[in-house]
Amino acid sequence: MKKPWMYLLVAMLAAFVLAMAGTGCGGGDDDDDDDSASTDDDTTDDDDDDTTDDDDDDDDDDDDDDDDDDDDDTGDDDDDDAASLKCDTDNSGIGGGAHDDAGTAYVYNDATCEPIEGADVVVTQGESMLASGTTDADGKFVWPAPTAKAAGAVTVSAYNDGCWAWSVNADANTFSFRLDCGNDNSYSDSAAGNFTSGGSPLGLTQPGLLGLFKNPVYLGLAIPGINRQELLSLDFDHLLSTATFSASIELDEPMNVDIPKSIYVPALNLNIPSIAKVSISNDSVQVPVLDGATEYPIQGSVLGITVGSLADDIAGLLDLFSDLDVAELIGPLLNAALKVYDSSAVPNWDPSDPLSLPSTATTGALPVNVDNMDGDYDYIGLSLGEIAYRNLLPFGFGITDESGDMSLDYTDLGSNTFTFAVAQTDLIKNPDGLMAPALSLHLGFLESPGDFPSTWEVDADDFLPNVENASYVDGELNFELSNGGGAQPDLIHVIYASADGPTMQVQFPANGSGEYTWEVPAAELGVTPSSDDIIAVVGFDLPDGVDVNAYNPNGIFAYDSANISLWTNLDLEALLADLLGGIGI
């Protein structure tokens, strides 16, 4: 796997991890209470673990097949499209009861859901090797009872050439893995279509130079549907169309930039003397479509940036851009200048039909207050809408003022649920924050605007701790994730991308100490650890009823976790500079 793929994954994690979980907006349950409590106030069904394997033989999944009309988790069986959950085989996830002295591993190709024959499986417990071998034609490997009885948690790892490796530590007897081996499926660009309103093209117009201060500049994006259930299976290579259009940009010198036709830009022609000249136009969109698909989710958003909202007047605007102080820019950008104007989700589009993205304008805004803010951090908000298994769209952005207040726009598409998220991060206040970015998120999930509180109250003391004192030297990752208060993680997810190419996903339960060490299995991956390797660490405060010994590792983001933290050693500042340099900026 190539490193740019990892760049995209980490970037998407940073953006979409905000939507990966949610509990009631009344402050959220810290999920560390008694799972059997009948008064549990989270919005998930404690007994429902639909994202986990139905036949994991656990005593706790008796309700898996219940037709529970009140069930409101994102993996529920009430959704007509629930069967489309990625690779929903008889051997999904991990479980099978506590590990005693034997076990079974299954290895599948994530893109095709077919078993992988000849995959290497390694079973360890601490420093002890319990078993190793290869999968049969059914993708199955059974390890017999070792000489020394091995009750308790074991680490099971699966490797196959050309695939992402997986490793999970759990007290379980059955381990099922879906390895990302690349996607050989064939895609073709759709015919050109439009964002529409009332059946006609949206017809937005861009401002000229004189109107630039008070009117938004529009930019849209149409892509295949994204959903959090399959975030780790997201096919980045086929998000954007292969067809392109050309934009003319003149800064120091003229240049033409090819842009995917998934990008919607109403005709924009600007000539700012001695600064820039821009000519760009694409009033229709195309999306890549899986060949042979008869039902295909698509989605789109149209954003606008109003330059004048960044300052009170032109003089203030010139001062802002002359200094280019990100800390001063980010507040007015998120709270006023940057808006989602139209959103569209077509969860069951028939590719034989013309491409049309019926758009809905922003419906309203939810006030948010963050109490007990830490002065070392900023608190950034994001609202999203979700159609389970099909679509996930951004609706609004914000950043708290000195009183902890902000508001988050939302759009009611009629069939979506809502996720509101607040990120605690020092990316802005810390001059080096982009060099090893970290953020911690608190999330709220609601069914409809009728469920919204008058104000969503968030306590900054309830966030997961950020990763601290992280180091990666000679293939050994060390980090801390403990602050002694607030929410605490239940599960740690490590994503590793070697500079040599091979990649790996690792999951293990959180420990009580908050101090963690993980070593790259260099021999198994066939790599030489390097300072250029990329690491991401994600911490999950899982919902009540989700057992770290019986869950679906590939579907970890499908669970309605109340809190998530993210850290990576990827230098986003350098990456951004490379991306901008690549187009001459």
Main sheet makeup:
12 strands, mixed
Strand order of the largest sheet: 4-3-6-7-32-31-34-35-27-26-23-24
Distance between the termini: 28 Å
Instruction: Please tell me the overall pLDDT.
Output: 81
What structural class do you assign from the helix and strand content? mainly beta
Give the fraction of residues assigned to helices.
under 10%
Roughly how many Å is the radius of gyration? 24 Å
Outline: globular
Strand proportion: 35-45%
Can you tell me the residue ranges where pLDDT is under 50 for at least 5 consecutive residues?
1-84
Please give the number of β-strands. 35
Individual helix count: 5
Walk me through the structure.
The chain is mainly β. It contains five helices and 35 strands. A hairpin with a 2-residue loop joins β29 and β30. The longest helix is centred in the first third of the chain and has 14 residues. The radius of gyration is 24 Å and the shape is globular.
Q: What are the key terms here?
A:
single chain, 585 residues, mainly beta, 35 strands
Structural topology:
Blueprint: H1 3-16, E1 94-95, E2 103-109, E3 120-125, E4 128-134, E5 140-143, E6 154-159, E7 165-170, E8 174-179, E9 187-189, E10 194-197, E11 200-201, E12 217-224, E13 244-250, E14 254-260, E15 263-272, E16 276-282, E17 288-290, E18 296-305, H2 314-323, H3 326-337, E19 338-349, E20 356-358, E21 360-361, E22 364-371, E23 378-387, E24 391-399, E25 405-410, E26 417-425, E27 438-446, E28 456-459, E29 468-473, E30 476-480, E31 491-497, E32 503-509, E33 515-519, H4 522-525, E34 534-541, E35 563-568, H5 572-582
Parallel strand pairs: 2-8, 7-32, 10-20, 22-28
Antiparallel strand pairs: 1-8, 2-5, 3-4, 3-6, 6-7, 9-17, 10-11, 12-15, 12-18, 13-14, 13-16, 15-16, 18-19, 19-21, 22-25, 23-24, 23-26, 26-27, 27-35, 29-30, 30-33, 31-32, 31-34, 34-35
